[in-house]
Structure formats: C-alpha cells, structure tokens
C-alpha cells in the first residue's frame, strides 16, 4: 500500500499534539515581568517538548521519504510511536507545573524513552519490509545516535530522583544531538 496516508495522518497527529501543548500555556494575570516568572518552568518544559516533537516530525519525514510503501505492520508500529508522542503534552505539563520535581521529570524521561524505542521499532519494521540492502537500511546503519539516546534516557530516569535538573540537562543533551536533521537518509537517497 502507498505511504501517503500514513504521512498525512502522522503529520496531522503531530500538529494536534503541538496545538494541545500550546493551549496548555496559561496567560498570566499580571502585566509586568514578575507575572511571567512563575511560568518559566512551564515555558522551559514547553520549549524542550516543542523541540522534541520537531525532531520527531523531521526524522519521521526523512524516514518515510526513504521508503516506497508500507504494510500493516508499519501502520501499527507508526501508531505505537504516535501513542507515546501523544503523551508528551501531559508529561510536559506535569513537569512544568511542578517546577521539575523528581517524579514528573522521571515520567517525562519515561515517555521520551518509550517514544525512542517506538521509533526504533518503526525503523526496524520498515527495514524488514524493504530489505537490509535498501537505501533506508544503508542510511541508518547501526543507528548509534538512536541507541545512545535510549541509554541516556535510561540513565536520566533514575537520576531524576537524585537531581532532577541533571536529568533535565540530559534530556536537553539528547535533543541537542538530534537538533540538526539526520543527513544519513538524505545522503543515501541522492547517491
């Protein structure tokens, strides 16, 4: 089956997730800078989550550009990814509203970890469909950056109970690793 509906549906879901997140930002009841200061944790968590969703959207786009078609397994693997991404607004809001307390920061990391695992599963299902010699398989290679991300999330989750700001810093580090689009797929498709 064609991949167009999967791309369109995924784009729509990610757009809705972003919309939900921005609607959760509450307008302060004051008209000076002091009125904004209590919202700083909420805004910081929003910015990080916006970046993460942008990273997933960008890499998802590149991923689907590297494949010719999808099947039922791909559809379900993609739904699995979208499920975890759909929890980002909840985890973001809880973390920000509670000023980066340990449990909300750990839960945020759990959502990121499970989204990363779901993305990895999606890549493996696509490679299984298109073959280990496909442009996608060759572009992803060993996917060291993806595996390293999972390790960092797994370390940050328990670390949140020791120092939630260090865990939050690890989430920022992983986002920074992915901020620039993954060029492996683009390079492989143009060769």
From TrEMBL:
Q: Name one GO molecular function term.
A: proton channel activity
* Protein's UniProt keywords contain Transmembrane: yes
Q: Which Pfam families match?
A: TMEM175
User: Where can this protein be found?
Assistant: Membrane
Does the entry feature the keyword Ribonucleoprotein, yes or no? no
Mind listing the UniProt keywords for this protein, alphabetically? Answer: Ion channel, Ion transport, Membrane, Potassium, Potassium channel, Potassium transport, Transmembrane, Transmembrane helix, Transport
Any single Gene Ontology cellular-component annotation: membrane
Give the record's family classification. Belongs to the TMEM175 family.
PANTHER family, alphabetized: ENDOSOMAL/LYSOSOMAL POTASSIUM CHANNEL TMEM175 (PTHR31462), ENDOSOMAL_LYSOSOMAL PROTON CHANNEL TMEM175 (PTHR31462:SF5)
**Identification of the protein by name:** DUF1211 domain-containing protein
Source species: Merismopedia glauca CCAP 1448/3
């Amino acid at each position: 089956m064609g991949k167009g509906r999967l791309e369109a549906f995924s784009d729509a879901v990610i757009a809705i997730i972003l919309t939900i997140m921005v609607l959760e930002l509450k307008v302060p009841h004051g008209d000076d800078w002091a009125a904004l200061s209590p919202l700083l944790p909420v805004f910081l968590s929003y910015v990080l989550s916006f970046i993460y969703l942008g990273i997933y959207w960008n890499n998802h786009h590149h991923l689907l550009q590297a494949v010719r078609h999808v099947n039922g397994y791909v559809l379900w693997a993609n739904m699995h990814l979208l499920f975890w991404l759909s929890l980002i607004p909840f985890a973001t809001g809880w973390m920000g509203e509670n000023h980066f307390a340990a449990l909300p920061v750990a839960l945020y990391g759990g959502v990121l970890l499970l989204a990363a695992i779901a993305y990895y599963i999606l890549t493996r299902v696509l490679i299984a469909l298109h073959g280990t010699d496909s442009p996608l398989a060759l572009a992803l290679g060993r996917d060291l950056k993806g595996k390293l991300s999972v390790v960092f999330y797994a370390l940050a989750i328990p670390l949140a109970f020791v120092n939630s700001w260090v865990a939050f810093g690890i989430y920022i580090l992983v986002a920074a690793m992915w901020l620039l689009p993954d060029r492996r797929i683009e390079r492989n498709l143009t060769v």
